[in-house]
Design a protein that fits this description.
This protein is an alpha+beta fold and about 210 residues long. Helix content is about 35%, strand content about 35%. It contains eight helices and seven strands, in the order αββββαββαααβααα. Strands 2-1-5-6-7-4-3 form a seven-stranded antiparallel sheet. It starts with 11 loop residues before the first helix and ends with a helix.
Length: about 210
């Protein structure tokens, strides 16, 4: 991933928060024909200090798990809020538009998970993330049904070996920050989320303090 220094997130908590707020990842592996193979899927982050694990699964008919088995190294990306940036936020006219976005890029080492107990533990993490009230219903479905459903998925654990978090918010152009924040604050959900991140990164307070 192209990562200019002004957009590098130095604090790992930024990546952690983006992964948990935007858990639908793109998992990218090399297929047997040598081309990238991409699967969108939700992943659960286990933050164990310096060690991060991403837990997920795909349907057994999806060949992606076989690519992970043959070539365990893969790439996982999480796209956070993103929005157009108009050059109208600058005080002068000789500027060009761009697109702002927040994303996390992980290089991972995959390990397949096959036992019922480990799959059940993984699914409980995902249920807790997205639909905790479903946990009781899942437990009440009976072991036969659960085993049948488990047989239809391939679970995996992805150990993060490289982590890159890109926060592209025009940090290097402070003359745009006040107007950009105002424009994003009155926009759609993604734009408002970017405005919140500008505040979190201290971009707006810095500009207002200079004014």
């Amino acid at each position: 991933m192209y990562l200019p220094p002004q957009f590098v997130a130095q604090d790992r908590s930024y990546a952690r928060d983006l992964i948990r707020a935007y858990p639908l990842a793109s998992m990218i592996s090399v297929a047997d024909d040598g081309l990238p193979f991409v699967t969108p899927l939700p992943l659960h982050l286990l933050d164990e200090g310096d060690d991060w694990l991403l837990l997920g699964h795909c349907a057994k008919p999806n060949p992606h798990w076989r690519y992970l088995q043959a070539r365990p190294q893969a790439v996982v990306t999480f796209m956070g809020p993103q929005a157009y940036m108009s050059p109208r936020v600058y005080p002068d006219l000789a500027r060009v538009p761009t697109w702002n976005y927040l994303m996390v890029h992980c290089v991972v080492q995959a390990r397949l998970i096959d036992t019922f107990e480990d799959k059940d533990r993984l699914l409980k993490h995902l249920i807790e993330d997205h639909d905790p009230t479903y946990a009781e219903q899942w437990r009440g479905l009976g072991e036969d049904f659960q085993h049948k459903m488990m047989a239809g998925i391939q679970a995996f654990e992805l150990k993060v070996t490289q982590l890159h978090c890109k926060l592209k918010l025009n940090q290097h152009r402070p003359e745009s920050h006040v107007a950009l924040h105002a424009a994003y604050s009155g926009g759609n959900d993604d734009e408002r989320a970017l405005a919140d991140w500008m505040e979190r990164l201290g971009m707006v307070g810095h500009v207002q303090g200079e004014a």
